Structures are given as structure tokens and as C-alpha cells.
UniProtKB/TrEMBL annotation:
<dbReference type="GO" id="GO:0052689">
    <property type="term" value="F:carboxylic ester hydrolase activity"/>
</dbReference>
<dbReference type="GO" id="GO:0046294">
    <property type="term" value="P:formaldehyde catabolic process"/>
</dbReference>
<protein>
    <recommendedName>
        <fullName>S-formylglutathione hydrolase</fullName>
        <ecNumber>3.1.2.12</ecNumber>
    </recommendedName>
</protein>
<dbReference type="InterPro" id="IPR029058">
    <property type="entry name" value="AB_hydrolase_fold"/>
</dbReference>
<comment type="function">
    <text>Serine hydrolase involved in the detoxification of formaldehyde.</text>
</comment>
<keyword id="KW-0378">Hydrolase</keyword>
<keyword id="KW-0719">Serine esterase</keyword>
<keyword id="KW-0963">Cytoplasm</keyword>
<feature type="active site" description="Charge relay system">
    <location>
        <position position="263"/>
    </location>
</feature>
<dbReference type="InterPro" id="IPR000801">
    <property type="entry name" value="Esterase-like"/>
</dbReference>
<comment type="similarity">
    <text>Belongs to the esterase D family.</text>
</comment>
<dbReference type="GO" id="GO:0005829">
    <property type="term" value="C:cytosol"/>
</dbReference>
<dbReference type="GO" id="GO:0018738">
    <property type="term" value="F:S-formylglutathione hydrolase activity"/>
</dbReference>
<feature type="active site" description="Charge relay system">
    <location>
        <position position="227"/>
    </location>
</feature>
<dbReference type="InterPro" id="IPR014186">
    <property type="entry name" value="S-formylglutathione_hydrol"/>
</dbReference>
<feature type="active site" description="Charge relay system">
    <location>
        <position position="152"/>
    </location>
</feature>
<dbReference type="Pfam" id="PF00756">
    <property type="entry name" value="Esterase"/>
</dbReference>
Length: 284
């Protein structure tokens, strides 16, 4: 069987290796780059996996280089996948005109509108094509023990993909997630550009999806109270919590407002250990 990924670099990291990979993805119609951290334990047997979804303007490098996730993941023997945030170079009109839409801003949904519908299929890529390709080539990844987390737009992605795919992930966590995108400027811009009708917005909004969730729901969510985007109404985690409360799903959601922290990787790296430990308890 032909290998899906070519390895562009292998970098020693916390006793394991960070692999810089690329492959031709059919769901996005583009060459996709990503990072894969394999802990030392992967040399002896199967290890669980966490997908980390990055935010607006980011690539698969940001979390791997600035999140400090590998330090704790290596102790537990957990692999981490750092995908890109959108297809790149498709030549879709308007995809490079602004930083919060198009390139680097795929919003982890499957677009249905206009030219974006052909390649902006980040939900299908993250939940279907990418994991199948990874598990096929890297047999030391345990496809039965998988969790997901993300930051900002990636926090939105983590919550929505978890809620849209019951049973796929063992746990979910988020840093400063865009929690109610249909009611914030970032989300309204993205949904308006990617989705052909407002009726589709609820399908990609965590605050709406939690209302339909069956059974218990559990999550760890960190938000900085000095986050400029939070304070200007882009994140709206309170809306998510209120929707969960209305359906009796809020008891196991740990929303932590972190005093003095902003939206940056200084914030993420400070609490990355907590998030890896949170997932480790559910994966190991």
C-alpha cells in the first residue's frame, strides 16, 4: 500500500519525534501540511491520539512550536496531530483578501456556497480523510483512543466536530473557543461566505449543537478574562454554557476564566499541561 504522507523533516522533541508531513488530500483538492508528534512509547506499541486544531491565520506549526503540548504528552505516551487550518492555493476568488476568511480560516466546516464548496471541506478532512490516512501509515496510532482540542477558531472546531460525531472522540477541550459563531462577527463572516443559507448555521454552531446532544456532556474550556476578542464579543462562551444548562448538560463543563490572560500562545502554553492531563485521564 502506497504511503499517503511524505516526511519533510523529523525533529527530536521531548524524547519523541515531531514529524513534518505533507500529502495530497482529495477532500480539499490541495496539498495539506501537518505536524505529527510521536512519543517514545510509540516505538513499543500503540499510543492514543489527540488532534489539536489551531486558530485563525495559523498553520499546523503554531501549536507544535508554541503550545508546549509535547512535554506533557511525552510523559503520558500520547501522540498529537497538528493539522492545517484550511486548504491553500486553490485560487478561489476572495480567499486571500482578509485574514479572518479563506486561507488560514477554514472554520472546520464543509462549505456549501459557490466556489468554496469544492475544496473548503475541513470537517471531512479532519474527521474522515486525515485520520484514515494517518492510521493507515502510522500503525502505532491507536484509532480507538482519540480526543480533540483546539484554540479560538480551532476551539470552535473541536467542540463542533465532537458534537457532530458522537463516539468518535473520547474527550474534548478548548482554549478561548468561538462558542456561538452565528452570533459573533467572525462567525457571521465565515458562515455567510461558506454556507449557502442561514438554515445551515446551526449545524456548525456549538451553542446550537449542545441542545441536541444526547446523554452527558463533559469538557474543559479555558478563557482569559483579559482576552481582547472575548471582551469584544467574539467568543461568547457564556452562551454555550447557558444553552447547555437549558438542556441539563452543563454540570460537567469546566469553564475556567483565567485572570489576566489574553488570547495568545502565552495563554495556551500556560494551561497546555492541564489540557493534556485532562485528556490523558480519558484516553489511558
Amino acid at each position: 500500500m502506497a504511503k499517503a504522507f511524505s516526511v519533510q523533516a523529523t525533529i527530536a522533541s521531548f524524547g519523541g519525534n515531531l514529524l513534518k508531513l505533507e500529502h495530497n488530500a482529495t477532500s480539499t483538492g490541495s496539498t495539506m501540511k501537518l505536524n505529527l508528534f510521536l512519543p517514545a512509547q510509540a516505538e513499543k506499541g500503540k499510543v492514543p491520539v489527540i488532534f489539536y486544531l489551531a486558530g485563525l491565520t495559523c498553520t499546523g506549526d503554531n501549536g507544535a512550536e508554541k503550545g508546549f503540548f509535547q512535554a506533557t504528552a511525552s510523559k503520558h505516551g500520547i501522540a498529537i496531530v497538528y493539522p492545517d487550518t484550511s486548504p491553500r492555493g486553490l485560487g478561489v476568488q476572495g480567499e486571500d483578501e482578509s485574514w479572518d476568511f479563506g486561507t488560514g480560516a477554514g472554520f472546520y466546516l464543509d462549505a456549501t456556497k459557490g466556489s468554496y464548496a469544492a475544496g473548503y471541506k475541513m470537517s471531512s478532512y479532519i474527521t474522515k480523510e486525515l485520520p484514515v490516512a494517518l492510521y493507515g501509515q502510522f500503525e502505532n496510532l491507536d484509532s480507538s483512543r482519540v480526543s480533540i482540542m483546539g484554540h479560538s477558531m480551532g476551539g470552535h472546531g473541536a467542540l463542533t466536530l465532537f458534537l457532530r460525531n458522537p463516539g468518535m472522540y473520547k474527550s474534548v477541550s478548548a482554549f478561548a473557543p468561538i462558542s456561538n459563531p452565528k452570533n459573533c462577527p467572525w462567525g457571521q463572516k465565515a458562515f455567510g461566505g461558506y454556507l449557502k443559507s442561514e438554515e445551515e448555521y446551526d449545524e456548525w454552531d456549538a451553542t446550537e449543537l449542545i441542545k441536541k446532544w444526547g446523554g452527558d456532556f463533559e469538557a474543559l474550556i479555558d478563557v482569559g478574562d483579559a482576552d481582547n476578542f472575548y471582551n469584544h464579543g467574539q467568543l461568547l462562551p457564556e452562551n454555550f454554557i447557558e444553552a447547555a444548562k437549558s438542556k441539563g448538560k452543563a454540570d460537567k463543563i469546566n469553564l475556567r476564566m483565567q485572570k489576566g490572560y489574553d488570547h495568545s500562545y502565552f495563554f495556551i502554553s500556560t494551561f497546555s499541561e492541564d489540557h493534556i492531563n485532562y485528556h490523558a485521564k480519558r484516553l489511558l
